[in-house]
Specification:
By secondary structure, the chain is an all-alpha fold. The chain has a single domain, classed as Arc Repressor Mutant, subunit A (Orthogonal Bundle), CATH 1.10.10.60. The chain has nine helices and no strands.
């Protein structure tokens, strides 16, 4: 019997760094069950492995998949397979999707300098700019300027 499980994506468990954002309804319009953030600051996914992985990303920021495997005590060769089985996406992409959620929120909702944001997410400023461009197809300042210009 081949059982299908719902894949756990970063957006499914990411909790805003800002309290007013956490109270929003999910984008699919479905009523949100009352779930409180776990000790890592994310919504519990129902899978301890993913919860730990996401928590470590929130804590340590940008690192390699092998870094997180070591932190979790998982054989490095098993980490990519496990994340893919649980999420349907590759482990590095999972890390990047999680980090871009946090990066966009910091760019849009704070006045932190981009250097401070890059340090918080464990990027060099140049690498952060490239990462942001690759993931969002714009530079951080473009998102911030567009966000402020639209009166949000």
């Amino acid at each position: 019997m081949d059982t299908k499980y719902k894949h756990i994506r970063p957006a499914d468990i990411y909790v805003s760094l800002f309290p007013e954002q956490s109270a929003k309804q999910p984008s699919d319009g479905a009523p949100q069950q009352e779930r409180m953030p776990n000790e890592w600051g994310n919504l519990p996914s129902g899978n301890d492995f993913i919860d730990l992985f996401a928590g470590l990303i929130r804590k340590h920021g940008h690192h390699t998949v092998s870094f997180y495997a070591r932190k979790m005590g998982v054989p490095i060769r098993m980490m990519p397979q496990t994340i893919f089985a649980l999420s349907g996406i590759h482990a590095l992409k999972w890390i990047h999707e999680y980090l871009i959620l946090e990066a966009c929120e910091l760019v849009e909702k704070t006045d932190l300098q981009f250097k401070e944001i890059s340090e918080r997410l464990n990027f060099s400023p140049v690498t952060f700019s490239r990462f942001f461009q690759q993931m969002r197809k714009c530079q951080p300042y473009e998102l911030r300027n567009g966000y402020k210009r639209n009166g949000r």
